[in-house]
């Protein structure tokens, strides 16, 4: 594995003593204790005094959001990110899509016997760096080791808690005919970045994941009194699958314009070579927002002032018909139905 120079590899547990994660009977043993006391607690800033089966939280709000997700991406490291930062971003973004301000995360690690300690340390540091940027704290977790050949290196489960500090009802059921659809940036980069590394593909430029925490941008929209009806991040199945899910849940038709949807030239080229449609390729830092027409231009202007929204665009609208269809005007001017993807185009991308 190629070392990433941005990581400080001064691991708190002597790599010479434990070069690889060894199988510990019952999940205990000296190594597991050292992982918790010398690696996880100091890195994540969790008080040693609360080494207990659960963390106690003090929330001053009545309404919270809670989510959980698991990450099994292969390979563990890819251009612009890794499984650690992805686990933080994915859970933070799920909370943000509910209109919540993320506060606390848990982290559960499934480690494969024989995993290099250096690899685990890189992932742990990456998680902490991502958590600091996202302004969340990792306050509890768990570690298990499985037999060699049963875990593919590392699997991570994260759960997150956030507070909802507004009166908006952000859900697919709030989508209404006439709503305008906004996208915060170009699509398809995450899936293609993973695919390129996995298959050893080389393009003229390195395509990097768009993985990023979206909560700051979302909170900025909410605090600007934008009447947000729905938000969704465009992960597995990409934009097309997400729009179909919302269309079905809200019982509305959604119309989008292909010319308005930003796609990087290198991503478009890679998709053409691989036979993929960017609409169905996964993203980890992109989301769509449904707002009333009166708020559309204001929302677009606010999004464009943020680094994660500087390519934001109005890409479509909700129509009055109610056949639960997603249609798109193509670049050549023809209309076509955008169906839900059958199966999974790119497995193990998150």
Describe the model:
This protein has 350 residues and is of the alpha+beta class. It folds into two domains: 53-164, PurM-like, N-terminal domain (60s Ribosomal Protein L30, Chain: A); 172-337, PurM-like C-terminal domain (Phosphoribosyl-aminoimidazole Synthetase, Chain A, domain 2, Alpha-Beta Complex). The chain has helices spanning 29-44, 83-97, 117-134, 189-199, 215-223, 238-250, 265-274, 293-304; strands at 64-71, 77-78, 81-82, 101-112, 137-146, 154-163, 180-183, 230-233, 253-257, 287-291, 313-319, 326-329, 335-337. Strands 8-10-7-11-9-12-13 form a seven-stranded mixed β-sheet. A four-stranded mixed β-sheet has the order 1-6-4-5. α1 runs parallel beside α3 and α2 runs parallel beside α5 (215-223). The longest helix is centred in the middle third of the chain and has 18 residues, at 117-134. The chain is globular. The two termini are 20 Å apart. InterPro entries: HypE, PurM-like_C_dom, PurM-like_C_sf, PurM-like_N, PurM-like_N_sf.
